[in-house]
Queue: 4 jobs
Job 1
Amino acid sequence: PDGVAVNDKQYHGACFLCFRCQMPAGRSYFEGSGKIMCNQCVADAQCSVCKQPIGGTAAVELDGRQIHERCFVCGTCGGLLPDNFFPVPDGRMMCSATCAASSAPSGPRPGASTTSGAAPAAAAPSLLPA
């Protein structure tokens, strides 16, 4: 039979599709956050930070972007990001409210609100297998 078993569920081979290319993923695949990727899409994936291939290295998926674990670092101190990190408006990610606050421009911008505080912690990213 042409079937694939994943997490105690059975799939027809033709129905077991890669979430990126929508082609059958086959029996050798990668799973992260409940999403299935075929070997070709994993090989073609690039880190959105360093622009190097993800390949078989450990990676994080965030908002549809692939990021090497080694590139998933605080924009202020360079430390690895925890599960609950702080995004800032310019797109960088911070490891703590302290780093987020220290990266903010000094003084209010004209017309900006005078209330202060770091952005709320973002949801934990998904880890793709190495």
Job 2
Amino acid sequence: MLVRILDVGLRPAEGIAMCSELSTQNLVNILWAHGKLRVSSPALFATFAEELIYRAPTLGPQDLSNTAWAFARMKTDHPMLFDTLANVVMDQLWLFLPQHISSIAWSYATLQIECQPLLEEMGSQAAGQAQAFTPQGLANVLWSYAVLGFQHR
């Protein structure tokens, strides 16, 4: 299976074909790797997005933030995926570490996705964890809110 997973990273068509066979962790890791290496594969991202919409309730904070980050890094918006991610994030926000909040905020701002309920809830969570944020993480959240023109109440 590992060889097949590595092939997915090198051959997006293979990844699309075996998408439903991959674990959620593998889907997210492949997206993250594409983002990290800046390997453009719109068809793979679209196919994985559809699969992750279906699997979204099983995603944890790291999976959610890595997925959003990968799409943002590749400047690839998928409105239905980001709507789904926002709902799952809001359901699990109490589990999020500052790094997850920072990454999600940065991803939505980078793609210019204004999701007021998500921003409001993340702002409350971030305010309660402000001491735990790194300076860079806090700067990312503040930058994101400024870019989106959002003021937390």
Job 3
Amino acid sequence: MALTEEQKQKIKENRERALALKKKKAEERAAAEKKELEAAASTKSNDDRTSQDGTKNEDSGDEGDNVEIEDFEVGASPWVTKDEAMRKYCLPQGTLAVCSYEERPNPRHKSWKPMRLYKRSEIRRRARERFGGLEGLVEERRKRDKKRFANDMAETRDVFKKSKS
């Protein structure tokens, strides 16, 4: 079945319109990414000043002194996801409920709930207050890892035993 000249013209117009929209969206996306990178760079230069000895200068106002940071925090984003705050800093959901956060669109799927990003400096401060400093936090993390390992071992204890059928 052959297309008429009118149909061919309509297809051509639709294609051109679609390509123009695609180009416009790509330009908008590039401009938005550039803006985000500039904002992140200015935030990083203002908020994350790490000295040579591994201590971090906090600009929170109430902590004017240098704070010792852990290895995983070096070069990390100033924002922490809820999952990371609970795993790395051993904070319960109740503590996170009182922390300030910023909501951003979910990067995995736009229709899902927006993700909550917490300020790393606040999460670090609350975790250290809760567990009595860096040593207490590290000890709590070690204790939870041991408990998780013990639970995993208990679950897999009978994996290789013959079942009686």
Job 4
Amino acid sequence: MSSSEDEYEPEDARMFLIDSGTKTWKVGIAGDDCPTAVFSASLTPDSRHEDQDYLSPSFDVADLHYDPERVSLNHREKVLYEDDFRNLLLFTLGKLRGRVHRHVSSIHEATVVQTEPVATCGRIRRRILELMMEDVGVEGYHAVPTPILAVYSSGRGCALSFELGHSVAQTTIIYEGYMPDGGVMTTRLGGHDLTQCFMEEGLLNERYGVAEYIKRKILRFDGEGEDNQRTVDLPDGRSITLSPLSGQAYSTTCSNLLFDQVSATSSSRRTISDMIYHTVMQTNIHIRKDIFPNLVCSGGTTLHQGFPDKLTECLKPIISSKHPNIRYKVIAPPERLYSPFIGVSILASLSTFRGWDNSDPFIIKKAFYEEEGGERALNRKCTYYQFDEQFNKTVLDI
């Protein structure tokens, strides 16, 4: 990551990046190889303490006004809390501008490139654009689906993106930088469900925020010294010692919830291995051979020790029994926790993205927004569904 303001090019310094996830926001400047700061997307006092380990020293979230009755806008939620989202957005952009104040005198000179989930409805996308342009007053805006960025950060153009984060598991087909119609499958399963399962089974007798912190530390254990006891240091100064047997219980529960058909959350849902297989099989037969060898994982829940090997093991009986000649491979980059952010950082740094002659082929500028309106601007500049006559796909207007 760029360590000082002088390392940024003026064009990069004006590109502010926001990876707005369900649980956390990852923010930075174009060209950064990891986020400047990662912090909780909740605006409640309890979450501020529970997510203390997320906070970057350069971002003092105590400066932000907290409303104990509401949470920030998240485009995976059904209800918009616009005042909270505006506060969080202004706080984030103000802090980023402080890192590049020599190049950007105010946030009105910045261009925001934001990630978004595939399932974001058009009404929420239009409202976020309206907040960016009219309330915050940024110079430009662009939104990119996270599956495309996760695949892009791995250096691939054709792949299946498997995202397993805080609350959602999603598989998405990416073909030459676009998402073919029908190549998306989503289920409500993620790190939140693991934490709840651990608490219900009595493995973690702590409040939710502390239980989630312990879960991450245990399941991401490096695997060395498994015969020894594990000690987890909590942000409040306490330490918890776990025996090897306890660690095995956590791993078994995690495996059962993610990979077994009968789980603690629902007995009717598909396993993640079934999701991956059926998503690929829903695409055109001509591109399946390009997708199976490129099953790209991203999201914090995929960081659990042994997750790629377990997923490969579960896919083997499904794929090999029906397609013995097909080669498949699970790709789990070590930086997959920040894959969407790395992808958007690379994208925002490209001169082809910004335009060789400042034509801004992908960026929604203020004048373009006022001329075309929010819906037309998003459809013309931020659409990643493409009609393809060869595969007889259907046009989707986002």
